[in-house]
Specification:
The complex is a heterodimer of chains A (116) and B (116).
Chain A lengths: L4 E3 L2 E4 L5 E6 L6 E8 L3 E9 L2 E5 L6 E5 L5 E5 L8 E8 L11 E2 L3 E5 L1
Chain B lengths: L3 E4 L2 E5 L4 E7 L4 E9 L5 E8 L4 E4 L2 E6 L4 E6 L8 E10 L6 E5 L3 E6 L1
Parallel strand pairs in B: 2-11
Antiparallel strand pairs in B: 1-3, 3-8, 4-5, 4-9, 6-7, 7-8, 9-10, 9-11
């Protein structure tokens, strides 16, 4: 069974640009969550999608947005990039939505975003 | 607001030693607790999931315990090997009391080095 895949693996952008990251969950998983990982803040929750609906959202500005398609694939968009957006962006998929004790999350390899 | 702490931040042991990694959380109202391993520059690998009603889980040389009343979880690694060298992260499944978000709240991790 294929794991969670993320594309692209690496991105270099300049301030002010926008970027779209993609995540394909494990087959059969309907929940996709996104996290930002930085050396200073560690792993922080961005948002979760389940059955094409955003269920949960972390404390990030509106420049960070996402969506989920009918095949459960998800995209994350960051507009007007800032230097502080440089990070490893990880997505995770699970069978059940957040809040369930069965909610075991499986992570992809991440997309390394560098903003110059 | 849920906070997760992992102590120590780094640990170095000789091969073959049994070791314990610690994780503490401030709010006992969690729906699960998950342990992950992260290799440098890579995504997270799920090791063990403990549901809120469970006290421990075992997988091979790994055993994780959960004590919600004291806000603690431990990951026990038996007969450590150089291949166990990685950063170990614990994450508590929690509901944000302010925003209502259900999400994993991560500790900063313990970097483990097992010396041959």
């Amino acid at each position: 069974k294929a794991g969670v895949t993320q594309t692209p693996r690496y991105l270099i952008k300049t301030r002010g640009q926008q970027v779209t990251l993609s995540c394909s969950p494990i087959s059969g998983h309907r929940s996709v969550s996104w996290y930002q990982q930085t050396p200073g803040q560690g792993l922080q929750f961005l948002f979760e999608y389940f059955s094409e609906t955003q269920r949960n959202k972390g404390n990030f500005p509106g420049r960070f947005s996402g969506r989920q398609f009918s095949n459960s694939r998800s995209e994350m968009n960051v507009s007007t990039l800032e230097l502080g957006d440089s990070a490893l962006y990880l997505c995770a998929s699970s069978l059940s939505p957040g809040g369930s004790s069965y909610n075991e999350q499986f992570f992809g390899p991440g997309t390394r975003l560098t903003v110059l | 607001k849920q906070e997760v702490t992992q102590i120590p931040a780094a640990l170095s042991v000789p091969e073959g030693e049994n070791l314990v990694l610690n994780c503490s959380f401030t709010d006992s109202a969690i729906y699960n607790l998950q342990w992950f391993r992260q290799d440098p520059g890579k995504g997270l690998t799920s090791l063990l999931l403990i549901q809120s009603s469970q006290r421990e889980q075992t997988s091979g040389r790994l055993n994780a315990s959960l004590d919600k009343s004291s806000g603690r979880s431990t990951l026990y690694i038996a007969a450590s090997q150089p291949g166990d060298s990685a950063t170990y992260l614990c994450a508590a499944g929690a509901t944000d009391s302010q925003g209502g978000s259900e999400k994993l709240v991560f500790g900063k991790g313990t970097k483990l080095t097992v010396n041959p």
